[in-house]
Amino acid sequence: MYLINLQGNGSINEQIKSQIMRFIELGVLKADDKLPSVRMLAQDLGINPNTVAKAYAELEEEGIIYTISKKGVYVASADIPSRLKAQGEVVIRSLKEDGITKEELLKIVDSVYEEDENA
Prior knowledge:
Blueprint (H helix, E strand, L loop, with lengths): L11 H15 L7 E2 L2 H8 L3 H13 L3 E4 L3 E4 L4 H18 L4 H17 L1
Antiparallel strand pairs: 1-3, 2-3
Helix pairs in contact: 1-3, 2-3
């Protein structure tokens, strides 16, 4: 089900993440569907389990999947807007940690939306 291009430009864990998100967007994976274990997916793809674990950890941090100890990894939500909200929150938290103020961020957001309105 998962295809990885070992000679491709993108990192392997980014390819895994992109495919899982794409499967959710297409409805192939739905909320609470079980994903392959780290070991199983790594074996199927012929890659290091740490690579899969990293992809899963990043997806979990973004709220796209969740783990139940000793049970497995599952799709958290097939709701695309909540996925995008989670990604936005990650970006905003990163900007805040880098010292960007709320006012500066709001100016950036306003300018982006103004560009769209003027296009």
